Amino acid sequence: MKMQRKDKAGWTIEKARKILSDAVVKTKGEAYPCHDFSLVKLIVLGQWSNVYTTIISKQKIFDSYRYVDLMAGSGTSYIREAKCMVAGSVFVAKAFARHPYSSYVLVEKDHSRFEDLKARSNDLNGPCQLFNEDANNVVNEIFDNQPPKTHNFVFIDNEGFNVNWNSIETILRSKSDMLINYPTKCFQRTTDDRTAGSLDNFFGDSSWRNALVEGEAIDSDKALAIYEEKLRRAFWHFRGKAPYVSSIRVGMQNYFYDLILCCKKGDYIDAWEDLKTKTYWRDPNIPRNACLLLSGKSSILDEYIIPFEQKKPTQPGPKYKQLSDF
To answer: What's the pLDDT tens digit per position in 94-153?
Structure first.
């Protein structure tokens, strides 16, 4: 008799274990405050870091591949609901990577968080370039001056309309995969000129106005579709390759966001499609309970694992279909 994880909570716990066990969690310094759904975001980031490093390490046309985090925070996060410290995005990307990144590029605007990030960056055990700047001010330096034959995995953890469209285009001119935290719930109303101006910068034009309904209200799903289509068109324009742009919604009705993957189309996107089928990303109890269990605040295991008789698959599946393979 063997034990199989339940598809919902058990899979989440397995992936969360890497995030909570990282040594950086035990270091001193500020932890960025967040909510339980941030654990889901980190798991998705980690999973694609695994897929990315598995694939890109086999591409002989590249001499190196970098992890670029344009809003890296302090290196750790504190989940308020579970009262639990977890590794920050860069250390999640490192922990899940199948093969080590050649180097890291980390950007953090807040000075206090930057200092903590700088101190913790020694644990990356690899070359690391740090910027205490607004991401929009340094993207040209990062991507225009990158080493030749370099590919990038870029994480953009927007909380609002942080990284503008000009910066996105700069990234798309380089050979990069992007994972973008699209702040869907911020697109509720355009109440003043300042908000409208931020949206113009974020979209690069006024195309978001096509999502307006009933005066100032915004259809957030339509705004997301407009943004994704802009990514597809820009990717094709700058890279000349078939784009893959797809999003995963995380959260509940009163709070949610979308994680957008933008990369070249290929067989490996089966891994993302598999991740999209895990619709429990909208249940806050799963990441919250995973944190409680793994941090020692809960000892309830019964709801997470069930016995089963292991069976061999009748036919082998696609090489990159199940994310549990990574």
So the answer is: 988 999 999 999 999 999 999 999 999 988 988 999 999 999 999 999 999 888 899 999
Cα–Cα distances (Å) from 324 to 185, 212, 265, in that order, read 30, 40, 21
Cα-Cα end-to-end distance for the chain: 24
What CA–CA distance (Å, rounded) separates 23 from 169? 36
The CATH number given to whatever domain includes residue 304 is 3.40.50.150
CA distance 111 to 131: 10
Token code pair at residue 111: 């000075």
Question: Is the overall model pTM greater than 0.90, yes or no?
Answer: no
Q: What residues have CB less than 8 Å from 240, skipping those under 6 apart?
A: none
Q: Which residues pair with 130 in a beta bridge?
A: 106
Decide: 273 and 320 in contact? Cβ < 8 Å.
no
What range defines the domain where residue 173 resides? 2-325
Strand partners, 172: none
Count of domains in the chain?
Answer: 1
For residues 27 and 324, give the distance between their C-alpha atoms in angstroms, rounded to a whole number: 30
Q: What is the spatial distance between Cα 163 and Cα 115, in angstroms, rounded to a whole number?
A: 22
Name the pairing type of β-strands 103-107 and 128-131.
parallel
Which region among 65-69, 141-145, 162-166, 314-318 has the lowest average model confidence (pLDDT)? 314-318
User: Strand 76-79 to strand 84-87: parallel, antiparallel, or no bridges (unpaired)?
Assistant: antiparallel
